[in-house]
Amino acid sequence: MFRNYLKIAFRNMLRHKVYSFINLFGLTVGLTCCLLITLYITNELSYDKYHAKADRIYRVTRNFVNQDGTVNLHLGNIAPPFGPLLKSYFPDLKEVVRVLQNNAVVAVNPERTFNEEDIFFAEPAFFKIFTVPLLSGNPAKALNEPNTVMMTEKMAEKYFPNQNPLGQVLRLDSQLNLKVTGVYESFPANSHFHPNFLVSFVTLEDSAVFGRENLRTNYGSNNFATYLLFPKDYPVKNVAAQFPAFLDKSMPAEGANAVKASSWTNLFLQKLTDIHLYSHLDTELEENGDINTVYLFTAIALFILLIACINFMNLSTARSSIRAKEIGVRKVMGATQPHLVVQFLAESMLFALLAVFIALLLTKLMLPVMNSFTGRELSFTIQNSWLLALAMVGLAALVGLLAGSYPALFLASFQPVKVLKGKLTTGKNSISLRKVLVILQFAISVVLLVSTAVVYKQLSYLRNRALGLDKDHIVNLNYNSTQLGPKYEAFRQELLSNAAIKEVGRSIGVPSDRLLNSMGNARLQTADSMAASPVAFQYLGIDQDFIQTYKIKLLAGRNFSETYPTDDSMAFLLNESGAKLLGLNNPQEGIGRSLEYGNRKGRLVGVLQDFHFESMHEKIKPIIFIIPDGRQYSDISVKLQGNNIAAGLAHLEKTWKKFLPENPFDYNFLDESFGRLYEAEQKQGLLFTIFAGIAILIACLGLFGLASFATEQRTKEIGIRKVLGASVSGIVTMLSKDFLKLVLLANIIAWPLAWYGMHRWLQDFAYRTTISWWIFGVAAVLALVVALLTVSSHATKAAVANPVKALKTE
């Protein structure tokens, strides 16, 4: 009997090819989108969970509080003294590890020299906290000695191809010789950081930048990611509650009134598995994801799947009456109601399962495209995703049951005598259900259309908003200042000797990067004394040429200058936000006042106009500008002539290789670096466009099918109207207006939902556009036009048909 049901199902599919295609295509596309997005969401939720002790690992974060109680900064990294002090103050802690991220030039020989960014200095406890499979070396000893390094197998092959890397030597920034003591597997993609090299932490004790005493006493250098391992089932909240007392005991009180540390800075605990989706602090080891994006994609997946399922159910119920005579004959021949219910359910589930099978194949084919959009390394095989595939089969079965249950129960209950006499009516409830489903479909489509428009409007706003600096034709290069040393001025003059190069400046960090983690407390002279309470500031180390290179506007005072020898150690610049934080309503009134920052004392010599150093996701922060001690810079910015970029780059490369022959010539254009800050939003915008298009396509296919069915049902009515003198336009209007009313109602329902969702999305930006009223109007018009084109094609065809053919059977 079941074989007979399948045979009938396939015959019906072949007999009604258009409806079969619409049903199968819509459900297949919906399931494919849902499956792709589910793979993405599953991957996002899996970050850092592969560590065996993930549920017991926490990161320590730090914030800084202004005098009015508002949070100035919240950093994902903390100062180096905290690690050992936490271990001592909280003896129940199993392990504490400090990690310092760095970039450097790594070399084996002149032929194998590369700029590397993911170099991490780590303490030996690293392997006791994190799960890191080793390929060679002893984790208990590999990072104990100074000047030792471990690397991933990819780096081992890169620097020592076809060799045993153990015992080999790497040279770091032409200064440190590091002995290779181990090789480990690369961290998986779903990790919040990916160290390619692990250098022994004790190496820092002899470094010029840090040093043993600095690591022990410097509470301003917040560059160290610090992780804690707790015992099983430990009350972690108890530790967090003791942080204020810990800070007051560990850190010296500052200011004339001996201000306690806990009054201006705090520590927090952050679960390891929460970092990727829930952490958007001022310093992160890598760019994290966002739980709001997960929610957004979840909603999109459900929306598209819902639209596809609605189509499936709509067309199934709409065409139920066409098979009424078949049911009547079957009943006369002895078929019982249960037999008919099973038959219809089997046909519906066959459609759904066939759609799942095709969707699984399409998912496999579309996965590389999805990976390019999301920047993830998603994979899908039955072996690693069998549970997901099983869930999709279950979902298809559920959809099949829901879609098939109504027509099955409805048709199976027909009285055969009435059916065979042609007295069957489909009933008002069926019509009402279909209307509700059409409204729901188009409401979802309009929400996606509005969301797409808002995303693109925000991206346009970000691209066109004034940054407060000149980002055009500026090239940034990273370097180690000790490698140039006293040769820098000769290097700069040789660059400027070429007319294609306009300006050259140095800094510690460049615009489009994150500001330094290092913090200092600033005090500005008031009317008669220095301010009692310290104010936490991030600083930017720049030279005398940086401001001119970026064309940053000076609001008051002067720039740093070589004509003032004390500028190296006693001069400060502030941005507008920094001046306001220190109580200056007028920038000019602070010029010449005494200013203290950390251990440096001097005077405020200038105030700069606010400019965007970081992404517009972040508010412009208060910044204090200094010439760094020993002129230890890390970046060079070169302004090129806009009409001669190629010549400028050629001269820059030639000069670079002359003065820094051991450093690879790697550069970035600043405007491209700023553009990369919004790649995630650009991809979101494109995905919104694609998914909105898919949603509308599926909805229109369903509307096409319903319009076709409605037209068929009213064929004789149309014929009579034409005989009585109705015009083609009148008939088209009659057939179209009912559907357009539904689409208009869908818009009214969708607008508040779309506004709320996009309002929440825009909150992620410190600087954002507005949600304009015209966006809703455009979305409404577009939805109505698409619906009209879809419905009117059938309506026009029916209206111009020969009425004789419609009435000849009467």
Question: Span between N and C termini?
Answer: 38 Å
Beta content comes to 15-25%
Count of discrete domains: 3
Oligomer: single chain
How is the main sheet built? 6 strands, mixed, barrel
**pLDDT < 50 stretches:** none
Tally of separate helices: 27
Q: What value does the Rg take, in angstroms?
A: 34 Å
Average pLDDT number? 82
Shape: elongated
* SS content category: alpha+beta
Strands of the widest sheet, in order across it, are 3-4-9-6-8-7
How many DSSP-defined strands? 22
**Helical amount:** 40-55%
Structure notes:
The strands form three sheets. The chain has a six-stranded mixed β-barrel with strand order 3-4-9-6-8-7. A six-stranded mixed beta barrel has the order 14-15-20-17-19-18. Helix content is 48%, strand content 17%. The protein is built from 27 helices and 22 strands. The protein is elongated. Helix 10 (291-318) runs antiparallel to helix 15 (428-464). The protein has three domains: 2-44 and 291-456 and 679-807, no CATH class; 54-278, no CATH class; 480-662, no CATH class. The two termini are 38 Å apart. It has 810 residues and is α+β, with helices and mostly antiparallel strands. A hairpin with a 3-residue loop joins strand 7 and strand 8.
